[in-house]
Write a structure and sequence with these properties.
The complex is a heterodimer of chains A (279) and B (246).
Chain A lengths: L1 H35 L3 H4 L14 H9 L2 H32 L5 H10 L5 H4 L1 H11 L5 H5 L6 H12 L3 H9 L4 H12 L1 H16 L3 H6 L8 H11 L5 H21 L1 H11 L4
Helix pairs in contact in A: 1-15, 3-15, 4-9, 4-12, 12-16, 14-15
Chain B lengths: L6 H7 L2 H33 L5 H9 L6 H11 L6 H9 L12 H28 L2 H9 L4 H12 L1 H18 L1 H7 L11 H11 L3 H29 L4
Classes of the chains: A mainly alpha (279), B mainly alpha (246).
């Protein structure tokens, strides 16, 4: 009896605490949506309004006029898509090589890769990477946005671990049936790794979509910039400091990843924990 | 190109600007890591109680994971804006703090810490929740039911059981705050007021791309690279020994 009363009390307290925390954590997003739908008079009224009076969609049109958002979204899609595809391609093949083959220099190259596991390439390498891109003449191109990030130690590790967990008997059986190593990969291993590939794909995509420092330094032309830089362009371009317009543009930029995340939350969480990815 | 030996490093460590950037980094990263770890741990404990509505709370609390640092910075710039910001209004109404957060010391630092912690918290909560699920239910039950000593048990039993995860998260958070936070700082304060919120990565960016001091900037890259090597080494050296759950 006493125990159950206490449990009820604990549950109630936890419930209240969680509601408060959820409100505080989701407040920035909620208020951003609210202000993006307010007319300038509402935006500048003091104290700030929590709910908009009506739905003032003109802010969204203004945001698209202020900054070439359509083009920036396209650039970000190309960049994130290409990086995701590249990382999966190199990650699967190299993971397969480290898991299933013996070759010269395996340990040395594996250790070299291992050393870069936690290295945020986008930031630590930025100076040498920029100089290389300049030499290649790739500044202001999709090449510079995508090629340097098409391989990562994290993906290689992830797929190596996964392939190591698949019983060796399968490989032997496939070999006896006359399958080449590549056929074994595409017909046996990959179908067994669908959830893994899906999880890695969304995490890689969100990572690339959210990149900031590298696009900031390697792209100077407005029409080659990405959406994350677009957010800063909005703040700079909105001379009247109308946060309704800035937030409208911001919502447009954050909506794709947030919706993807809400729809695939379980897959996200599982893959994140399994891979220990930086995100 | 002229070979200058270690002159760039010598100049770097005799530059007051760089020393200040190191101090700022240590304060900002330290405060953010501690806040994130403790807040995440408690929120994970609450979510793990599986009270009604937990799936909805989880979904909403996890959202900042999918939001980029640049956008986190923009959202918090808006919330702290002296004219239109709701959080600024809240602080001036209830605490009498009426400042321009982005340009005033030490509020600019608080501003980037708010945005950084908000952005990184879901990542930690996800890992703590996964760790809590590996702890047998009766241990957790015992800690939640026994009212008075619940605090003690949380610190003496649950927190130590999760120490491998905490260790992993501290390392990951240090990396996030040292590097990914660049976008938050660039959007919110641009390293200001003065160079008050200029961290090592922001200094590197300024030296390399605003002031075109390639030699100094390269030396700064090497310093950051070495920091990362040390962090990675610490992780695998101590992590290997401590990866156990019970």
């Amino acid at each position: 009896m006493r125990k159950s009363t206490r449990k009820l009390l604990n549950t109630t307290l936890a419930e209240i605490a969680l509601i408060a925390i959820t409100l505080v954590v989701s407040m920035p997003l909620f208020l951003a949506i609210s202000i993006s739908l307010q007319s300038p008079e509402e935006v500048f009224s003091y104290p700030p309004k929590i709910f908009p009076k009506g739905l003032y969609f003109k802010n969204y049109l203004d945001a698209f006029k202020l900054v070439p958002l359509t083009r920036l979204i396209l650039n970000s899609l190309i960049m994130a898509g290409a990086i995701t595809a590249g990382k999966l391609f190199t990650g699967i093949l190299s993971g397969y090589a480290y898991a299933n083959f013996r070759f010269r220099g395996k340990n040395v190259s594996f250790f070299a890769l291992f050393a870069t596991l936690f290295l945020p390439a986008e930031t630590v390498m930025i100076v040498p990477l920029f100089l290389i891109m300049k030499k290649f003449g790739w500044v202001n191109t999709y090449w510079a946005l995508t090629i340097p990030f098409m391989a990562s130690a994290t993906n290689t590790f992830l797929f190596r671990q996964h392939f190591l967990s698949i019983p060796k008997e399968l490989e032997d059986a496939a070999r006896i049936d006359g399958a080449t190593p590549l056929q074994y990969l595409t017909r046996v291993l990959l179908p067994l790794s669908k959830a893994m590939i899906g999880g890695a794909a969304i995490i890689n995509f969100v990572y690339a979509w959210n990149m900031y420092l590298w696009p900031l330094v390697v792209i100077m032309q407005d029409e080659m910039k990405t959406v994350q830089i677009g957010v800063k362009m909005l703040i700079d371009a909105e001379s009247a400091n109308n946060w309704g317009v800035i937030m409208a543009g911001t919502i447009v930029v954050l909506i794709p990843t947030v919706i993807m995340f809400l729809l695939l939350q379980n897959l996200f969480v599982k893959s994140l924990v399994r891979s220990g990815m930086k995100g | 190109m002229i070979f200058v030996g270690l002159r760039n490093f010598d100049r770097l460590f005799h530059s007051e600007e760089y020393i200040r950037a190191i101090k700022t980094t240590v304060i900002y990263v330290g405060a953010s890591v501690i806040l994130t770890i403790f807040l995440s741990f408690f929120i994970a404990l609450l979510l793990n109680m599986k009270v009604p509505g937990t799936p909805i709370y989880k979904a909403l609390i996890f959202i900042p994971y999918a939001i980029s640092p640049a956008i986190a910075g923009t959202l918090w710039s808006f919330l702290l804006n002296p004219v239109v910001g709701h959080v600024n209004y809240f602080f001036s109404k209830f605490f009498g703090i009426s400042v321009d957060w982005i340009t005033a010391k030490p509020y600019a630092l608080y501003a980037i810490i708010f945005a950084s912690v908000w952005k990184v918290m879901p990542f930690d909560i996800i890992f703590y929740l996964a760790g809590l699920q590996d702890i047998p239910d009766d241990i957790i039950e015992a800690t939640t039911i026994d009212g008075a000593s619940a605090w003690k048990r949380i610190w003496k039993i649950i927190f130590p059981l999760l120490s491998p995860i905490t260790f992993y998260l501290v390392i990951m958070n240090i990396i996030s705050f040292m590097f990914s936070s660049f976008a938050i700082i660039d959007v919110m304060t641009r390293g200001g007021p003065g160079d008050y919120t200029t961290t090592m990565i922001y200094r590197l960016f300024l030296d390399a791309f605003a002031f075109q001091k390639t030699g100094i900037a390269s030396a700064e890259s090497v310093v950051l690279f070495l920091v990362m090597i040390v962090v990675t080494f610490i992780y695998f050296y101590f992590g290997e020994k401590r990866v156990h759950y019970q």
